[in-house]
Structures are given as C-alpha cells and as structure tokens.
Amino acid sequence: MSRHVAIVTDSTAYLPRRTMERHGIIAVPLTVVLGDQALEEGTEISARSLALALQKRHSVTTSRPSPEVFAATYRAVADAGATDVISLHLSAELSGTYDAALLAAKDAPVPVRVVDTGMVAMALGFCALAAAEAAEAGGGPEEAVAAAEKRAADTSAYFYVDTLDYLRRGGRIGAAQALLGSALAVKPLLRLDGGRIELLEKVRTASRAIARLEEIVAQQAGSGAVDIAVHHLAAPEGAERLAERLRGRVPGLVELYVSEVGAVIGAHTGPGLLGAVVSPR
Prior knowledge:
By secondary structure, the chain is of the alpha/beta class. 39% of the residues lie in helices and 26% in strands. The strands form 3 sheets. A 6-stranded mixed beta sheet has the order 10-9-8-13-11-12, sandwiched between helices. The radius of gyration is 18 Å and the shape is globular.
C-alpha cells in the first residue's frame, strides 16, 4: 500500500476553502469566546460579526482547540486511509494550539508530526500548501515537513493596525510593549519575528504607514517567483487597493490572495487591520 500523508492545520491559516478542498487540507478550528458564548472560528462566528462586537466593546477572548478535538481529527484521517499525518500550526508563542496537538499526537492511531511553523494567517497557509504539494508529488512525511519548514523560513509577514489596544489586551505584542503609553499616538508597522509580534517601524499617519507597508512588501518580494497574501479586518477597500498596487510592483508574482482574517486573529488586532504575507516559491 502506498503511503498517504494527510495535512492538518488550524483555522488561523485562512486558506481559501476551494484550495483546502483541492489539496485535502483539514483545518481544526480555534474558538472565539464572545460574552458567555464559545463559538468555532469559520463556522459559528464570522469576521464581520467579530468586528461589530469589537466596535461595541464587547468582551472577546480566544481559545485553542482541545487535545480531544485534535485526537478526533487524527482518528478521522486515519480511518480515511492516512498512514501519516503532518499537523502544522500557528506560532506556539501566540497560542497553545501546538501544545494541544502534541498531546493528541501521542495516542494517535498513525504517526503524527506536529510542527510549530512560527507563522500565522496565510504565512501558515503557505506552509500547509507546501507540505500538501510535497505529499502530492510522492514525498513521504519527512519531505512534507521539510517543504513546510523551508516555506516558513522564507516567508515574511507584516501588518498595520489602527491601534495597539487589542494586541495589548491580548498580551500578544512582545517587544512592541515599548510602544505603549505616549507612543500610542503613532501608527505602528509590525512583523512576525521568531514567532512573535514585534515592532518594525513607527509612522505618524495611517496613510504613510500603509504606503510604507506596500514599499516593504515590494522590496521583500524582489524579482523572483513569489506568492503574496493581503489580509484585512473590516477594511476591504484598503486591502484591494494594496493588492492592486502590489500587482503592478512585483514582477515575479505568481499567486495573490486577498482575504479577511478570521475571528481569532481579528480579536487580537481589531478592525482596520491591513497585513501582507510574502512567500517566495
């Protein structure tokens, strides 16, 4: 029997549904807690509903999937014929999702390799795609993991937020703590660095920050073959404008995804988020 390597990720990868279906990628949902309701990301709460709740200053927190949910997923893919599972997840610096997957993997009916990609959003999504494509090309679990890890090492993620308040409340800003206090008047550009959210630059106005985001992404993309994802929360016009400008500035652009982030990331960034992921092929 030939080996079938199943690719599992989590709902913060924000891969288009048709892409997941085409490659057989399974996403385990994280949970958004809105008031006294625990809602699964992607099925029970939309990004738009989350943005409205944040704007009304409702209490919003997030929660990792339980090990039991991961265990059920691993059993299901094994029952469907998988002989190995690669489970790729958002940065362990940002969530306990990786730890929950590790716990479940210990008792899975087939070997499960759990990978902390250090990424989130489509930076994670591109890792899952790389693993799936490696498996589809006949590679075993080692090749799939290597493909995902290489993609993670080469991928960069940058984003602009209207305010640091949501990141501060969620304890997700790491070294960007230095921006608090009087510096909250500036518009920060942030990046993923070592799996953490770190300050990249401080800019005085929103328009200058977004223009600088475009410049950084175009420089990072260079002239080689590259995929880019533009993310937003409740800022579709800004995302489309940024995507259109990048189409004209990145000569090696292969795929360009434009999507609204889900409720889990949105809960920590707030409305007005505009981000970009640069992932060389």
